[in-house]
Amino acid sequence: MKCVKHYDPSELFATTVGIFGGLGTISFITYVAGYPLLIASLGASSVLLYGVPSSPLAQPKNLFGGHLIASVVGVTCYHFMGETWYSITITVTIAIIMMMLTNTVHPPGGATALIAVLHHANYIFIPTLMGSVCILFISAYLANKLSGKRTYPVKMINKKIDGS
After folding, report:
1. What is the per-residue pLDDT across 80-112, written as a single tens digit (0 to 9) for each?
2. What's the total number of domains in the chain?
3. Is residue 154 one of the residues assigned to a domain?
4. What DSSP string describes the chain?
5. At what angle do helices 9-31 and 125-147 cross, to 10 degrees?
């Protein structure tokens, strides 16, 4: 039984460059420039974008749509319900259902909705987050081209995430 999967060094290098380019830029802006762009769900998005870029869940429609829907739902639910056990549950439920209905499921979006409620986010959270998502996307695009073996984004022809 193999415990370690073999990767071409160019893929590992592209993953490393992508993470440093995307998440590193966002972290730098947050910690050095003092402009808060970093939230935990971007780490999970990084796993998809740089680790499994061919996954349907990592594609731009899902990346942008999932975070956008989740942030709008999260901020709106917090605005109307505050932070309670039921507001958290309702928020994540609505975000997931909306992602499913729009075929933009991006698992880190569930965390984005949760973060919006837990951090009492206001509507400026949405464009700020989307700016961070743009940085991740550009970095993923460039880094995956760098590998020479990966294609990102992958053209998905009328295929829903659930395979139907």
Report:
1. 999 999 999 999 999 999 999 999 999 999 999
2. 1
3. no
4. --SS----HHHHHHHHHHHHHHHHHHHHHHHTS------THHHHHHIIIII-TTSGGGSHHHHHHHHHHHHHHHHHHHHHH-S-HHHHHHHHHHHHHHHHHTT---THHHHHHHHHHHTT--TTHHHHHHHHHHHHHHHHHHHHHHHSS--SSPPP-S--TT--
5. 150
Query: Which residue carries 């003092």 as its tokens?
Result: 34
Q: Is the pTM of this model over 0.70?
A: yes
Instruction: Give a yes or no: residue 84 inside a domain.
Output: yes
Domain containing 85 equals 9-147
Is residue 142 one of the residues assigned to a domain? yes
pLDDT tens readout for residues 106-150: 999 999 999 999 999 999 999 999 999 999 999 999 999 988 888
